[in-house]
Amino acid sequence: MLVGGRYKTSDEVSRGGMSEVHFGQDEHLDRPVVLKCLQPSQEQRRIVDEQKALRQVISKHVVRLLDVVTHEVSGKAQTFLVIEHIDGDDLKENQFNYGKTYLTTIWQIASGLEDIHAAGVIHRDIKPGNARVDSEGVVKLFDFGLARQDGLDGKTVGIVGTLAYMAPELFASGTVCFSTSADVYAFGVSALTLLNKQQPNWCSQRPPRLAPNNAVGLHAPELPETIKDVLQACLSENPLLRPQMRDVKKAIEDTILFDQHSAQLILGPHIIDINKDNRNSSPSVTKGSAKDIISGLKISYDGFDFLVTKNIGGVSVNNTIVAEGFVLTPSCVIEFPSSGRSHYATFNVSQPEVFV
Question: What are phi and psi of 230, to 5 degrees?
Fold first, then answer.
């Protein structure tokens, strides 16, 4: 059929619990698209909620809404969401062993969720099957059929979602209020079920039991402590104790980029590189043949930051004398006092990024 005068659908249709997905072609722009509509038995507000959510969120890691059209089906007007076609595969439970690919994948999911929450949207159905990896390796979140606006719209009656990934507060009776923290919990469960292990028994029951205090360490002892800590926080029973997704993303990013920084200090004719292969340096200004130090710094790289561990003779950074423990900024000028005149050095850090 031709929807909206430009979207020609194929015979390939995927039916889920609430919606139908038609695969088609935009004949105006000659590109593949996905057309989504609700099954007749579903509340029409769900298509409106999804439309509002997708319109608000702009993110590299979230599927794009391209158009909204109305088409008559069996004598009734039907709303279709025209969505970006992602040429790739959905993520699956038990897909990864721990390593950089796993970390980069959950970092991308966290990035998408951070953008969703920044737009004031709650996804409400975060799980591996609602994330797809495109042909360039970019993870994109999709299926906003349960999405709600954060705030007054964050309430429901009854249990709606994928049970293993639903936060504990969603199983309460009566009217249930929820927030973006429900997505944070679902992210924590997703990060564990993506690992090539048996699903944790506390979330495989119906309804799931509360995650024990050491759930992450028991399930995946090979994870770095920073990742264990942030995922365990995501699984907190109390929604108020769960972290924001920007903090989750930062913890994962720090783990990926550990030991990837490099700094260069230039003092006169001397060029000093500080990195994982040369973690400590002691630039200084000396006097006489005895090499007596007039002023100097000891700088150490801890895998994340470049720290001043000792200051001799009142060395200043950007016109401020610094103490032990000071973190050098990515680009600064260091002044080394001397008996005649000060000597100046430039200090620059190459900042690594997560590339996908």
Answer: -75, -35
| 177 alpha-carbon distance from chain centroid | 24
**pLDDT band per the 50, 70, 90 thresholds, residue 220:** very high
**CATH code given to domain 2-84:** 3.30.200.20
* CB proximity list for 224: less than 8 A, separation 6 or greater: 255
| Residues 179, 352: Cα–Cα separation, whole Å | 33
Q: What is the DSSP string of 228-287?
A: HHHHHHHT-SSGGGSPPHHHHHHHHHHHHHTT--EEEEEETTEEEEEBTTB-EE--EEEE
What are the backbone dihedrals phi and psi of residue 284, each rounded to the nearest 5 degrees, phi first? -155, 165
Domain with CATH 3.30.200.20 in the chain: 2-84
CATH number of 89-257: 1.10.510.10
pLDDT digits (tens, 9 = 90+) for 288-317: 765 789 999 999 999 999 999 999 999 999
262-350 CATH: 2.60.200
Residues of the chain with CATH 1.10.510.10: 89-257
Q: How far apart are CA 115 and CA 110, in angstroms?
A: 9
